[in-house]
Amino acid sequence: MAKVIVVGAGPAGIMAALSASKNNDVTLIERNNEIGKKLKLTGGGRCNITNNRSIEEIFDKVVSNKKFLYSAFYTFSNTDLLDYFTENNLEYKVEYDEKVFTKSDKSEEVIQLFNNDLIKNNVKILYNTKVDDLIIENGEIKGVITNYGKNIYADKVIITTGGKSHPLTGSDGSMFEIIRGVGHTINPLYAALIPLVIKEMFVKNLQGVAMKEVVFKVKIKKKKIEITGDMIFTHFGISGPGVLKLSSHINKVLENEEVEITLDFLSDKSREEISNIIKSNPNKTIFNNLKGLLTQNFLKEILGALDLLETKPTDLKKEDEIKIIDFIKEMKLTVRETLTIKAAMVTSGGVSVKEINASTMESKIIKNLYFAGEVIDVDAETGGYNLQIAFSTGYLSGCDY
Fold first, then answer.
1. pLDDT value for 159
2. What are phi and psi of 331, to 5 degrees?
3. Averaged pLDDT of the chain
4. Rounded distance, CA 81 to CA 60, Å?
5. What CA–CA distances, in Å, run from 308 to 144, 279, 301, 315?
6. Which of 395, 398, 401 is nearest to 74 (CA)?
7. Going by C-beta distance under 8 Å and a sequence separation of 6 or more, which residues neighbour residue 346?
8. Taking Cα atoms as reference points, which of 102, 51, 105, 42 lies closest to residue 79?
9. What is the 3-state secondary structure (H, E, C) of 214-236?
10. Which residues pair with 224 in a beta bridge?
11. pLDDT band at 169 (very low <50, low <70, confident <90, very high)
């Protein structure tokens, strides 16, 4: 029976350990005193375990290196994952945007399930243990060196230590230097699924205003990107599910330049329809005619900025009407930067996929060294897709070939 070491007990590491345990003696090394510490945070603590879309649609939600994930997704799909949970008596539900949550809204249920399954499959877990180096001989991995100075030998090592976001959960990026030290390329790390800092000062006056089903448009080089989702204005800019999705598409560009985005707050209404609503009751103010369509605080701010809060349609100049509709249908905002990577839900960047065999997750540089999850340069939009990447790559990396 071969010996396998898995480094990192997040979703990728847990699934790698379970997959490998079918035919091997598995040791799972975790620097915290519990497994799945970051997993607990997903879905606002409710655990957004995956997404219920078809696997083909899930590929469309991958932002970086989607082709690399073909084998992983088809070897262990979202359907396979949900079947696994069902077999282990975990009840789940599908919500808006096909997001899958535990029926109880408790991430602890998922953690407990994994704990029980790891025990059942005789996976040995070393808690409060950090890997300080890898043991490499003649281009082949032989084991790891822990922070206690102990050498642990194995026939196969799987690295699943995550990225650099949420460092307090253990994914502080320290493993990247070790991986780089054995010859792997680490692509630049960026904050992904992260709130955006806006240049225009007026957004501060909208702090706390939440907007539904906003359409975000941006042009990156020649590529047009369109994202729909909810958002909220903050003291520094904008946040919310739609903004987090958008951030993963523009984070790399923001390193060198600002990015202009366009927001449509009423995508189901044409400019002409909004014009008609503005003029619908000449005896009411423009504000009163529009307030059934949009949040009142939002309307007060944009109409106040244009000095039109008390104006009636009969007194409205055409150029001012155009300005109102521009604010609603084509608000232009300049993104200066993202918040720091510590605040990101996901890290973009990591071990270059060019140096990993996509069919097995094995390193092309070091024999019997494998990678899975966020440590690899793959990431997706928010909605359970990044967890599915972790589970799929983790499962594939633990398989025997």
1. 98
2. -65, 125
3. 95
4. 19
5. 68, 14, 10, 10
6. 395
7. 163, 165, 192, 193, 248, 374, 379, 380, 386
8. 51
9. EEEEEEECCEEEEEEEEEEECCC
10. 219
11. confident
Q: Residue 401's pLDDT band (boundaries 50, 70, 90)?
A: confident
User: What tens digit of pLDDT does each residue of 23-41 get?
Assistant: 999 999 999 999 999 888 7
What sign does the CA torsion over 71, 77, 121, 115 have? positive
Task: Kindly provide the residue ranges of all beta strands, DSSP E only, lying in 269-357, ordered along the sequence.
Answer: 331-338, 346-351
pLDDT (average), residues 329-352: 94
The Cα 243–Cα 263 span in angstroms is 11
pLDDT of residue 222: 87
Q: Map tokens 């270059």 to a residue.
A: 352
Q: Tell whether pTM > 0.90.
A: yes
Residue 189 main-chain phi, psi, to 5 deg: -95, 135
Q: Does domain 3-190+348-398 have CATH number 3.50.50.60?
A: yes
In this structure, what token pair is assigned to residue 267? Answer: 């995508």
| All structural domains of the chain with their residue ranges | 3-190+348-398, 196-338
Q: Across-strand partners of 134? A: 144
Beta bridge partners of 215: 228, 264
Q: How many other C-beta atoms lie within 10 A of the C-beta of residue 400?
A: 12
With beta carbons less than 8 A apart as the criterion, state whether 183 and 352 touch.
Answer: no
For 313, residues 6+ apart whose C-beta sits below 8 A from its C-beta are 278, 279, 280, 281, 282, 286, 289
Half-sphere exposure of 34 (CA within 13 A, CB side): 10
